[in-house]
Structures are given as structure tokens and as C-alpha cells.
Write a structure and sequence with these properties.
With 463 residues, this protein is an alpha+beta fold. Helices cover 38% and strands 18% of the residues. The strands form 3 sheets. The protein has an 8-stranded mixed sheet. A 5-stranded mixed sheet has the order 13-12-14-15-16, sandwiched between helices. Strands 2-4-3 form a 3-stranded antiparallel sheet. The longest helix has 20 residues, at 8-27. The protein is elongated.
């Protein structure tokens, strides 16, 4: 009897394991959805490798400054436009979403992460922010304000969609909501804010699509006409559209299946069925955009995938994103407050998909940071004194760091380079004895000597 590791079974497992590792290595990165290590979830040490849940993305340290930049632009612009931040919970009662987004929408029908609470009530991870904002505004009576209530939010949303580039199951939105007026100029203000957000980030080749889907009353006649138009074409449309024909016929218009798009090219335009008031409102929005020279395209197919919309709807798309080309979208939702048992409150807002924005930006955006002072302490008295100096520098508001992995001057200076420190403060046993430190410019390598007790103050005053 040979040893176990000489057996055929071991031989097979051994080869299968390395073959899976090789195939994984070849495929990884190219086809991120086909990861063979899901089939053979072991790494070289034989332990199982845990991965994040499908459709969720880590934002790694080298990507974080890009996110900080985007969030800073969002916060700065929203504040400039008079919006205040609101932070709403990440989950709510499921009923909130089914009543506001609409029971026959894709989001409510198949994309929500819904789970029972311990007391049996049904909870849902927020798939979007508008419903939660409206709930919070009603609950905390934020409408009791003499001026338009203007709110913005930033944070993660959750939808169980098929993951692909630009479409995730956890994604982040920057959204704004302006509550309490239906003046067409607030529509213009909100759209201009969205447009300016993208321009400030330097995004190019954007298209602003705009439409009016009228009030529910306007849509009644239109939906009849649309159904009459679609009825003879039904067999030529995709399964989804055939279903939507009876549940939510408007959504047939924004189906992305090419044959459905082609066959519905001649569909009647909703704009033609708007009431006089809705027409005047829409024209005033278009005039407002024109007066500010914001370019737009009227898109008759733009009906949006959430049921709460009425009148103005809009989207901004980029040609550089493939199938998931909409980076920001929104519209008016004049009936939502009443649908949630609130007072009649006209409202409008938008949300931007921040992952999609990151796909359009280069990764090397670095936030402007103050210079980094690396404290290089070594030796039996130098190291503890340097640690104290590090604390003193940070207390004084100076950006300072060290690396506890390094114990020699050489390795510490190497770490300072790796951390892109502008300066190193060298502090060994000799420096403690003499009461001096060396300040080294990491780029020019020039060195200056300062009194140890004065170095913090000298840095604060620019040396
Ligand atoms: P929405 O069109 O569902 O609208 O989403 C807004 C944006 O979020 C989309 O244009 C897209 O950029 C991004 N987004 C949506 N789903 C995903 C996903 N699975 N992965 C990555 N990004 C995604 C709303 O959410 C409305 N609440 C907007 C609004 C605010 N309307 C009025 N006020």
C-alpha cells in the first residue's frame, strides 16, 4: 500500500486543482462573470477564498479619492443651489416602495431585496431614494416651510438586476428632490444642476433627453391610442412587452430590444395628447432650458421605469458607456405625496448613478491634500521620541505618518517614498542626544536641521 498522496484520487484532485487555478488565471479580468474558482473555491494554500456577493463592488483605496472628488462636487453644487442634505435609512417597510414606485414596475416585481423582520413585517433594502425622502418629509412634517423644500442625498441603493458593466446590485446615487412647487423654472433649475454636475466633473458628449408624460388624466386617452397601435403588433414584440401591454403599456416605449424599438417607431407621441396646461408647462421648461443655452433633445420614448412620474421626465446619457448609458435621470412626481397619504405637493428630482460616473472619469483624480510629513524614527531612544513627535504633529493639524514596519533609516526612507511623502523628519538616537532633527525634502533630497522642540511650530509657520 502506497501513501495517500501517491494514490490516483490524489493525483486527480491535484491536477484538477491546478488546472482550475490556471483557467481562472487566464479568464480572470477578461470575463469577470466566469470565475472558475467559484467551481473550485480554493487558493494555493488549499483554503476557501471568500468573494464579495455577485453584483457588488469594493471601492479600493486607490479608487477612493475619485469617489471623494465626485461626492465633494455633488455636495458643493447641491449646496450652492440651495439644497440641504438628508440622510434616510437604508431599509424601509416594503409597502413604501410598492405604493410609490408601482406594483407593476420591474423594480417592485423582481428587483427588490425584501426580507422579513423578526416580528414578521416585510422590509426592503432601498432600491432608490425618492420614496424614502417623501416618507421622511411627511413623517417629520418638513413641508411646513414657507419656501420650496430642497433636499439632496448620497448613498447606496440595492436592486437585484443582472450585473454587467455599469449595472450593479449595490450602487450609489447622488439625488436631489425639490418639493412644494410646480413652477416650470424649478424643473429647469433641477435639470441645470444635473447638467452642471456632469460638466464640473469634465464629462463630455452628453445628451439631455426630455419629455413630458402628462398627468394621469392626460395619459388615459393616450394609453388607449397606444394600445390600439400595439394590438396588431403584439406577436412581433418581446415577451416582456407582450406582458407590459396589459400591465403597463407605456413601458413598451422604452424597451431596449431592437425589434421592439423598430416595430414601435410609428407609435403615437404622448406629447400630442397632453392637456393645454401640461403643454404650456412643458413648453415653459423647454424655453427655460433654451434661455440658458442648455442643449436638449425631445425624446418621445422617455417614459421612465417608475410609476410615480408625471409631466416632465428627463435623462442624461453618454455614448461611452455601452448598454447602460444613462448616468442621471429624473422627473416630476406631483402625485406621490398624495399616494402616500400626504397633502397634494408637486415635486421634482433626479438621481445620478455614481458608478457610471466613475466609469467615465480617469482613476488618477487625486484630491488636493496638504503635504505629508513622514516621521522616520529609529534606535532605542529615537523611535519612542519620534512616535511622540508624530502625535504632536497630528495634534497641530499637520498631515503626518510613519511606518511601523521599518526599523532602519534606509527602510523608513523607502516607506516615505512609497507613501509619496513630501518631507521626512529623521529622528534617531543621535538626534535625541543633540536635540535636533533633520528635515529632508524627499524630492530634492535637500536636508535642513531644526531644533526638535521647535519642529512642529516651524512646519506650521512654513519652516
Ligand atoms: P432611476 O432611473 O431608477 O431613477 O435611477 C437613477 C440612476 O441611477 C440611473 O440613471 C443610473 O445612472 C443609476 N442606476 C440605476 N440602477 C442602477 C444599477 N443597477 N447599477 C448602477 N447604476 C444604476 C431613480 O432612482 C429615481 N429615484 C430618480 C428620481 C429622483 N426621480 C425623481 N427624483
Amino acid at each position: 500500500m502506497g501513501e495517500w498522496y501517491e494514490s490516483q484520487t490524489y493525483f486527480r484532485i491535484f491536477h484538477l486543482f491546478w488546472a482550475s487555478q490556471f483557467v481562472d488565471w487566464v479568464w480572470a479580468g477578461r470575463y469577470s462573470r466566469i470565475q472558475f474558482s467559484y467551481l473550485f473555491p480554493f487558493n494555493r494554500t488549499g483554503f476557501s477564498v471568500l468573494r464579495s456577493v455577485k453584483g457588488l463592488k469594493d471601492i479600493l483605496p486607490h479608487q477612493a479619492s475619485q469617489w471623494q472628488h465626485i461626492e465633494t462636487v455633488a455636495r458643493t453644487l447641491a449646496t450652492q443651489y440651495g439644497f440641504s442634505e438628508i440622510r434616510i435609512p437604508i431599509f424601509e417597510f416594503t409597502e413604501l416602495y410598492s405604493r410609490s414606485i408601482g406594483g407593476t414596475t420591474d423594480i417592485v416585481e423582481k428587483e427588490m431585496y425584501t426580507f422579513p423582520d423578526r416580528d414578521g413585517s416585510s422590509l426592503t433594502l432601498r432600491p432608490e431614494g425618492t420614496a424614502g425622502v417623501v416618507r421622511a418629509v411627511l413623517e417629520h412634517k418638513l413641508l411646513d416651510s414657507p419656501t420650496t423644500r430642497k433636499l439632496f442625498y448620497l448613498g447606496p441603493m440595492f436592486r437585484h438586476e443582472r450585473p454587467q458593466a455599469g449595472r450593479y446590485r449595490q450602487f450609489h446615487q447622488f439625488g436631489v428632490e425639490a418639493l412644494g412647487t410646480d413652477d416650470p423654472l424649478i424643473d429647469v433649475e433641477v435639470i441645470v444642476l444635473l447638467w452642471q454636475f456632469f460638466l464640473t466633473l469634465g464629462l463630455k458628449d452628453l445628451t439631455l433627453h426630455i419629455n413630458s408624460i402628462g398627468t394621469p388624466g392626460d395619459r388615459e386617452t393616450y394609453i388607449q391610442k397606444l394600445k390600439e397601435f400595439l394590438a396588431p403588433l403584439l406577436n412581433t414584440l418581446c415577451g416582456n412587452c407582450q406582458r407590459r401591454y396589459s400591465t403597463n403599456p407605456l413601458r413598451v416605449l422604452d424597451c431596449k430590444v431592437p425589434v421592439c424599438q423598430k416595430n414601435t417607431e410609428e407609435a403615437p407621441h404622448l406629447i400630442a395628447y397632453l392637456s393645454e396646461n401640461s403643454k404650456i408647462h412643458f413648453q415653459a421648461v423647454l424655453d427655460g432650458l433654451s434661455s440658458l443655452k442648455i442643449p436638449f433633445t425631445i425624446n418621445h420614448r422617455l417614459v421612465r421605469g417608475l410609476d410615480y412620474y408625471s409631466r416632465t421626465t428627463f435623462e442624461i446619457t453618454s455614448p461611452h458607456l455601452g448598454a447602460q448609458s444613462t448616468i442621471g435621470a429624473g422627473g416630476r412626481y406631483d402625485g406621490l405625496f398624495q399616494a402616500l397619504q400626504g397633502p397634494s405637493t408637486p415635486a421634482i428630482g433626479f438621481a445620478v448613478g455614481l458608478e457610471r460616473v466613475t466609469l467615465l472619469l480617469s482613476e488618477d483624480i487625486t484630491c488636493k491634500q496638504p503635504p505629508l510629513f513622514f516621521v522616520a524614527g529609529f534606535g532605542s531612544t529615537g523611535k519612542p521620541r519620534a512616535f511622540k513627535l508624530l502625535y504632536e504633529l497630528r495634534q497641530a493639524g499637520i498631515r503626518a505618518d510613519t511606518d511601523h514596519k521599518g526599523n532602519t533609516l534606509k527602510s523608513l526612507l523607502r516607506s516615505a517614498d512609497k507613501l509619496c511623502a513630501e518631507y521626512s523628519i529623521i529622528l534617531g538616537d543621535d538626534e535625541v542626544n543633540s536635540g535636533n532633527v533633520i528635515l529632508r525634502n524627499m524630492q530634492t533630497k535637500a536636508q535642513q536641521i531644526f531644533k526638535l522642540e521647535e519642529i512642529t511650530q516651524r512646519i506650521q509657520t512654513g519652516f
